């Protein structure tokens, strides 16, 4: 029996979402701190590319797989400069509207992740019962 990688993938995304939420919360908390530079994390696609979770290609029409290495680091880096607000007089680069939007997106991704794992778990339990 092959291992089910959906749970590994969901766990990895939950870890990434946790770190991203911490970074976004830090940005919001420092919105009025002079010379504070907004931060963000590497996109989940990049984290997934560096993880040991390989996606299966079951049809030639599907996207081809990548070579995955063992390092799955989630990097925190300076965020791209928000073109709407730019650099404020205090030297701060945090845009509250953008950060709150990121926070809402993180919540939606958490909800989707949880729903998928819950549905898959129910499906697995139904097959075991029969």
From TrEMBL:
It holds the Pfam family Flg_bb_rod. It comes from the Bacteria. It is found in: Bacterial flagellum basal body. The keyword Metal-binding does not apply. Residues 19-36 form the Flagellar basal body rod protein N-terminal domain. Keywords: Cell projection, Cilium, Flagellum. The keyword Transmembrane does not apply. GO terms for cellular component: bacterial-type flagellum basal body. This is Flagellar basal body rod protein FlgB.
């Amino acid at each position: 029996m092959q291992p089910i990688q959906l749970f590994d993938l969901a766990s990895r995304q939950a870890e990434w979402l946790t770190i991203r939420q911490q970074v976004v919360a830090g940005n919001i908390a420092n919105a009025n701190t002079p010379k504070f530079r907004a931060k963000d994390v590497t996109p989940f696609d990049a984290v997934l590319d560096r993880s040991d979770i390989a996606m299966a290609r079951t049809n030639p029409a599907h996207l081809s797989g990548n070579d995955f290495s063992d390092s799955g680091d989630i990097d925190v880096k300076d965020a791209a400069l928000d073109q709407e607000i730019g650099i404020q007089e205090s030297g701060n680069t945090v845009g509250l509207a953008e950060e709150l939007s990121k926070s809402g997106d993180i919540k939606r991704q958490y909800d989707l992740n949880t729903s998928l794992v819950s549905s898959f778990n129910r499906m697995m339990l139904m097959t075991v019962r029969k």
